[in-house]
Amino acid sequence: MARRKNRPIRKTRTGESKPARRNKASSQSEKRNNPLGSYLLRHLQNFLGTLGRICRHPVSSLMTMSVIGIALALPAALYVVVENGRAIVGGWDSVADLSVYLDRQVSAEAADELARALRDEDGVAATKVIYADEALEQFRELSGFGGAVDGLTENPLPHLVVVRPRPNLAPQAIEALGTAISGRPGVDVVQMDTEWVSRFQGLLDIVRRGVALAALVLAVGVILIVGNTIRLDIENRRDEIEVSKLIGASDVFIRRPFLYSGFWYGLGGGAIALLIVFGGMWLLRGPVQRVAGLYGSDFTLSGLHFPAALAVLAGGAVLGWLGSWFASTRHLRQIEPGQDL
Amino acid sequence: MIRFEHVFKRYPGSHEALSDLSLHVRAGEMSFLTGHSGAGKSTLLKLIALIERPTRGQVIVNGQNTARVSRRKIPAYRRRIGMVFQDHKQLQDRTVFDNVSLPLLVAGIGHREAGRRVRAALDQVGLLGKEKLAPVQLSTGEQQRVGIARAVVSKPDILIADEPTGNLDPDLSVEIMELFQRFNEVGVTIVIASHDHQLVERLGMRRLELEHGRLAAGY
Fold it and tell me: In chain A, where does DSSP find H-type helix?
């Protein structure tokens, strides 16, 4: 072949010391004849290059990220609401407490014994005896009927055993526990408010499922938002893509910067979502604390803890990547060079 | 090096751009493709670059039947062909250096090696020292040289050019053609489409005259 005998001339012309690398070899596979270092370097270049490109168009980039941020903030905020709701219920263990009123003739010692026995019962976390005298004293102080109480010749109140079920015990189990206790000798009546607990937990379940649903819908939304942005981006850089294709850039090569752009949009959107959620929390914390104070609770609004915040960021980045993957795979295929050659 | 065997090309809803065209360009040969516009010059080049595929017939480039190059393999195939365009097809937002290094970047050639090759290519077209400029800062002739540097930087076996002097005055055109000749001297197979008959005549290279999608009589 004529090429062969001409190659030495070429080498001297270009002043190369190494033998010219044949393009035939590089045509085999982009990755194989690349040292890993240069492969990673190209990714790093794209990684930083796309960030630079985004920073050069701050307004439009920020707008895209804000839309993504709002979409991500919604499920994140709902998640915070549910978590706090759970904390409220968890903090109000006493709601599930069973009040076991004993017969009047039962002695204090017998009450102690019953409390001990109940403590060993399955599903019971703790028991406490409120003696009739104590109860009367408390009633005298708190009820405002002090004078009337003083007029009593004998204590009308029975001893009371407060039974605290294990946390997270299902309402039905609490109910069963109450029924069992009420069957014991010396027990007059068992009072419980499991209905409220089961309602609240049911409500929380609905909300939790709603959050999951909203998150799913909004995730699809984010994918579409990023996809659309990337589609416009591709349209704007049509010339560049055509030239790249003409000089032999593979689809993977051309797609790479768009994938990284999507990644950055998603990550930026996640960051904005966190800003929105934390900003909202900051605004709500004071009022919530005041209301909690009115209810005699020391409840404070808790925010997104670190893993959840990280999940919002990572979720944004992954969705951004996915959105740009769908868009670029679809639209890059449609751009074929040379119609105007 | 480039062989057309009974090639037909018909664009949808259009006339036959090439009709029963057979030709052979040998390795290391430099030939001109002439003919009036619409004679099929661009189509012929597009078939070589696999921008279009023939309706019928075979195009064999560098021993490879282009019909067997799948869509996925086209990038690798194109890396072995340098292309020069009438409108240069430069990326305006990048420097001359970045434009010329694009084919090396695409081929995954390392940074340092790419830099050396880009400077060598720019040296060959006489633009060393202008690598940091943007394409718009160059004259039309210089921009075409950048286009040529980009086409040769990856040392292709074949160089195809579509009206590379279409926008240039006669003096610059001669310079550009001489540049092509120098690359041809080191063994690159070159096909240049041009309607500038005078210039082609003067250079005394092989001419392939197309007429209504086939070789004109006598070629």
Answer: 2-14, 23-26, 36-56, 58-91, 108-119, 132-143, 146-150, 171-182, 194-236, 238-246, 251-294, 306-334
